[in-house]
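Data availability excerpt. The first of two example chains:
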Amino acid sequence: MYPQKNKLLLAALLLCCAPACLAERADRDKPVHLEADQVLIDDAKHISTFIGKVQFTQGTMLIRGDKIVVVEDAEGFKHGTAYGNTASYRQKREGLDEYVDGYGERIEYDTRAETVDFYGQARVVRDLDDVRGEHITYSQKTEIFQVHSGAAADTSALPKRVHAVLQPKHKTDAVKPPAPDALPIKHSDTLSPAE
């Protein structure tokens, strides 16, 4: 058996390739820091389980949950699942002073597909944009959100709905010329109708 510190170090090494949602690209090369009340590492199955107030940090990415399970495939790609009431995700966007924040009862991140999925009362906030549904998928490759409402538990009830608040994007590259001064309107006796 490994001492507890060695287990955390090994688990951190297993998680080094965590994906990013509109990610700060440099995060991939940063060390992973993990905090949990308990850790279980199964080297034979390539599964690491972190339990109790789990905090996973890599660069600007921060994932929090009650439990995080990480599975490594044969090619070295990782798939992590964070569980919580409510699990959270935060990461800085590449080249911007802006963050993406996501929430759900379950958050799955996949380093191969470069996606982050939020399940169960899912919510993603980016700047002033706010999207909510039962399942939200974000692809880093395409920068596309897909939001699903989920089925209503009662078949006689109305289906659940997706909610979104999307703010208009400001054009910073086009500079509008100043509006010309208005010409004053003056009364003219020469244009008055004849009496």
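And the second chain:
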Amino acid sequence: MGYGELRVPTAIAVTSADMALPPHDERTVPAVVLADLDRQPLDHSLAAVQSLIDQHGHVVVVYSQAVPASVEQRLRTVRSLLESDRIALFRPDLPPLGLAALARQLRQLASCDLSPGVLASAGRLLTHYIHAGALLGSVTKLDRVPVDLKAHAKSWVPGSQFGVVAHPQPQLVRIGPGATLAGPEFATSMLVAKGQLQSDWVSQTLAKAWSVQGLREVPLPAESPEWWGTGRLIEFCTFLPDLSVLYQLVTSVRQNICHWCGIDVIGDRCVFCSATAPEPSAYDNRPVYQRQLPAG
């Protein structure tokens, strides 16, 4: 298929077991679960992450914007205390199920001959190819997608359901005859995770409208009710399942060398040291130690 295999792949970590989806193929590397980070002693967290660095060289932690603030604080504390530029903290603006799909894609790519910087950078690229949303029984507490007053009012009507897409472009419709959501214009597979809502609209109507080529039901991530503002939901996302397609996408993008830490990256920001690529006119030849330390 045109890609090699690394003996010791970069570790792809998640913050809860329900974000570690089952392997999509035989090459998909296992996810490292850093569970209960905010509930364990700091030295335990430090030892766990240091062990990952020693074993894998680099660690990419993928976590949701719905995790408790204490979890994110612990991650940043560990990274700071270890003084390591081998830990990437990746927190994209995706609902939990879409994030779990993205983490699995990175686990697929971790088995290939991609450098740690390119692999970590690939997360931002692949995010653009994920369509993530939910069927909701209420939008009264939904604050991650714009909701007008009319939709709020309809949310109080018994039996009302709403189809919502949070990424890549916000969409919201009340479910009824002819209701539709714009979907991907390329072949995808779909994941569905059911909460406290009964409906076949996602698995039948929406999946057919989006021409998905495979559908699989998985458990609802624990962070999903917090993210969507209700437990009465059915979450869904579509994604590119084929490793060869993912690999071609990533390797077709021009690679750069981070001017701060020297690692290979794609895009204009290094996921490991947070440095952004300088404008050509602003770059100078001063030694690295004389340049301002990048934020992050």
